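Sample 3 of the quickstart, ligand pyridoxal-5'-phosphate:
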Amino acid sequence: MTAHRIHNFNAGPSALPLPVLEKIQASFLNFNDSGMSITEISHRSAKFDAVLNGAIDRVRRLLSLNSDDHVLFIQGGASLQFAMVPMNFLGPNDTADYINTGTWSAKAIKEARIQGKTIQVIASSEDQNFSYVPKTISCTPGARYVHVTSNNTIKGTQFDQFPETFEIPLVADMSSDIFSRPLPMEKFGLIYTGAQKNLGPSGVCMVIVKEAFLETAEQHLPTMLAYKTFAAHNSMYNTPPCFGIYTIDLVLEWIQETFGTLERMAEHNQRKARMLYDVIDGSGFYQATAQKNSRSLMNVTFRLPTEDLEDRFVAEALENGLGGLKGHRSVGGCRASIYNAVPMESVAALAAFMERFEQEKG
Ligand SMILES: *Cc1c(COP(=O)(O)O)cnc(C)c1O
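Result:
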């Protein structure tokens, strides 16, 4: 069965760890001796409670969260978070700072503006086609938060260090690099992450919010758009995305059992990324699109000498069992997404294919 699986470099939804998929398959018809599938049991049952609280506990351990930090599961993807963050944290007299590093940041900015909120774009890498992340910023005094996209899935850039914001909390979209490395949690007021890149299936978004930050949230919001609702009901005000949360629990268990800590996970990710960037940097054929000091360890973006060669590269790679290498439709080129679940063997197979392709076509 696994013989038919390809090396999956999809940007999202993307590869999940094979042991997780096998566990889901093995328990699908009879989850934990319930005689039912995880998609059939009641979300109010003890068996589902154990899944939900188990997943939350793993998040807490991996990121060393404080006991009063909230871990929430919300539907609507990261895209709903673009709207929920300003809705919850910007009152009529408030302002927030945004860093624009590409498509996803721009969408977050757009959603704040649609609501008529006051925001400042305090830094942008648009001047160089989003090929880098701004390293130093200067915040608006009294800003409620600074919004940052930690990893830019489309442009292949990533903050290796988060900008210094002093007492202003960071709000971070970590949809494409959550759990890929340890985090300086003291800097964040809120982190959100759509699951389908590094965490699980689409349909669920994980939010981590500090109690002190949550306390400052606006009142009188629609119930399902208020973080406080999710915090007060342990994400069970309404029916949660049960299957997604279950898969997240298994993915986090896999990280804990395979790597132990996020430091080890990060080392593994660095080795994987280096393998591809070494091929790119050692060739006159492939051209990295992100500047060296801003390169993503999750999404390796590159160009070939011509678009025709790029099309042939993507097609021949697929014939060789390497899938998902086409760049985002908005930017073209090639992109290898090498999230946590993409194994070293897959990356090595891609590196070897890239060298072969260059020898033949370069
Ligand atoms: C994929 C992605 C999104 C969009 O996520 P949805 O769950 O589709 O709304 C937002 N931000 C980043 C950084 C992403 O990679």
